[in-house]
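Side project, low priority. Logging it here so it doesn't get lost.
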Amino acid sequence: MKRLTSVAAAAFTAAFLTVAINVSAQDSNINQRTFLTFSGPVQMPGVTLPAGKYVFRLADTSLHNVMQVFDGEEKDIIGQWFFIPKNRTTEEANAADGKPVVVFMEVPEGVTPAVKYYFYPTDITGKEFIYPKDQALKLAAASKQPVLATDSDVTKGGEAHVFTVEPNGAEAAYDANATANQNQQTAASAPAAPVAANRPTDLGADRDRTAIGTSGAADQNPAPRQQASSELPTTASPLQLIGLLGLMALAGGFGLRLARSTN
């Protein structure tokens, strides 16, 4: 009987550890860590990226409204910027076939392509990037379309002051309600054209005409890094690892104590 009790205690401990590890794995990519490779230079808010491989992920802010880009080795942060939600249809998400989707602004030849939307694999709601005012003015003039802009300092976190700039340089207030209604209409619209692995999808009138190859995939075995929500960027935090090790030690100690008490 004692032998059976000891085996049961050991089995309970192993099961507890397995559950703890599985939960950690399921929640490990909450920052949407994704690898993207570009065949040519592309504009992001506040930065122009040369051709190459990069790591994109959400900053750990309280509002979850900041995207960050790192070099391919994820050693140095290259840029970070605000974004607002942008919806796509279920058909468009399915057509992406589990791959990230990047949609560029329509700009004339000779202008470095600028990213307008980014969709994490399987997510219906993506991100519309918000550009610094000076950069937004240039992009609006080149694309002949309004561009979202901000004059807020992203490193301070918090909510961004968002407005639009017109091709003629005029500024207009950003209407979040109108954007929400537009997103609902987009989600209810007919499906867009299938997504190719090396080009962005079509969303409404936003059709890319720039030959920039884009490929990428979400990290299947991420090692997330946490950042303070007050100011960005900050150093990584080991809190998740410490918590998991604590659970493992607690479960192991409980199992050993139970085994000894039955001998």
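Brief comment: The chain has a mean pLDDT of 73.
Revisit when time allows.
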